[in-house]
Design a protein that fits this description.
The chain contains 11 helices and 16 strands. The protein is 35% helix and 22% strand. The two termini are 41 Å apart. It is an alpha+beta fold. Among the domains are: 61 residues; 229 residues, Major capsid protein gp5 fold.
Length: 418
């Protein structure tokens, strides 16, 4: 469906013109969507095929424009890796040496300088058989890029560690406290219950390939190329693990933990609210289920809470209204904003399950308090010119783990009768 675009309006400073145009198209499409959906809701007939097709087309336009806005925002936020420290500064000399040695290794396989640098630094993190550490600035930029393109990483807490396992004591139940008078007897309080959570860092790898022509081209920024090749693969793999990972050689996703009805919640489980219908929202007042999900979360967590779901689920929810006849899903208020659901941010996470019987397709919570990602310091690269001739493979690895750190901070919507 084509939408007429007026590109003559002014844009605010710092907002790209294409983002402003895309946002205007999105708002226009959403207005048409609301008008068509209002007509659908008001008609007596059960199904109007033409109207349903129109709604589907408009929904596709809304989704496409939302994706385009996110892509523009990502492009603006993506850091470059072109800046190098000044060679005249002696403090930067080790960094410069590492970059030059790494560049020589990637382009031509010369590992002598890298090996000497790591021996000089007494580094036990890598070896010629397992690869060499990338320069710190490349590792930092890969991390920043992952933060921008990985939905859960941008929501969760992140901690960098130097070992293979991060152990965190967590107070499951606190000590009993109360008010007493100045001369009243103090009853003995109970001790808090502590739970030690363990977050192992698992190996994540990518294996981009390059031609010898690309590697020999001095005009190609090899650091930028490598970061671009691996960040997309890393983001896709770890993004799926943070949601649905089983914890076996990968992080454990928050929908993979044991779940219980929220009114029976106990520490160590994730609470859920049922939709009341197997594999669907209820036909009457479907938005009430989302209200129940919001208030299943304690007030202290709701302040920084957000919805997480995939685009199919979000497309369905776009048609819902609240009791005051207002649409509960709203597009971004500005080109740099984010869509909201009942005034809470909503994040597109394609790894969330589609709606089906007993699926856990919507999550709501304070993910910064609820989910922890651990990154072990160091990204290694092993150059392999033999396995896929004439291409050169770069076996790139990093260690990452993740899991729930506060079981009360995330709630799920289960599409089941109870």
């Amino acid at each position: 469906m084509e939408i007429e675009t007026d590109t003559t309006f002014e844009t605010k400073a710092g907002i790209p013109a294409d983002a402003a145009v895309t946002h205007a198209e999105l708002m226009r499409a959403f207005d048409e969507f609301k008008e068509a959906n209002d007509q659908r809701l008001s008609e007596k007939r059960s199904v109007d095929v033409l109207l349903e097709e129109k709604l589907d087309r408009l929904d596709s336009v809304i989704t496409a424009q939302t994706q385009r806005l996110e892509a523009i925002e990502l492009k603006q936020a993506r850091p470059a890796i072109g800046s190098e420290p000044r060679p005249t500064d002696p403090a930067n000399q080790p960094v410069i040496e590492h970059k030059a040695a790494f560049d020589a290794y990637v382009r031509g396989g010369d590992s002598a300088n890298l090996r000497a640098l790591e021996q000089k630094a007494l580094s036990g993190s890598s070896n010629p058989d397992g690869g060499f550490l990338v320069p710190p600035e490349i590792e930092t930029k890969i991390g920043e890029r992952l933060f921008n393109i990985s939905p859960i990483r941008s929501l969760a807490s992140i901690r960098t560690i130097s070992s293979n396992v991060y152990k965190k004591p967590m107070m499951a139940t606190g000590p009993v406290a109360g008010w007493v008078g100045e001369t009243d007897a103090r009853a003995q309080t109970t001790s808090p219950t502590l739970d030690e959570l363990s977050f192992p860092a698992m190996e994540l790898y990518a294996m981009p390939a390059a031609t010898t022509t690309l590697l020999e081209d001095s005009a190609v920024d090899i650091d930028e190329w490598l970061a671009q090749e691996v960040d997309r693969v890393f983001a896709a793999q770890e993004g799926a693990a943070f949601v649905t990972g089983d914890g076996n050689n990968k992080p454990k996703g928050f929908v993979s933990y044991n779940t219980v009805a929220n009114n029976s919640w106990t520490w160590g489980n994730i609470g859920y609210v049922s939709s009341g219908v197997a594999g669907a929202f209820p036909s009457s007042a479907p938005s009430d289920v989302l209200v129940d999900l919001i208030f299943a979360l304690k007030a202290g967590y709701r302040q920084n809470a957000a919805f997480v779901m995939n685009r199919k689920t979000q497309s369905l929810i776009r048609k819902f209204k609240d009791t005051t006849n207002n649409y509960i899903w709203q597009p971004p208020a500005s080109p740099s904003g984010r869509a909201s659901l009942m005034n809470f941010p909503v994040h597109d996470v394609e790894d969330m399950p589609d709606i089906s019987a007993n699926s856990l397709s919507v999550a709501f919570g304070d993910f910064k308090r609820g989910y922890l990602i651990v990154d072990r310091a160091g990204v290694t690269v092993l150059r392999d010119p033999y396995s896929a001739k004439p291409y050169v493979l770069f076996y790139t690895t990093k260690r990452v783990g993740g899991g729930v750190q506060d079981y009360d901070a995330i709630k799920l919507l289960k599409f089941a009768v109870s």
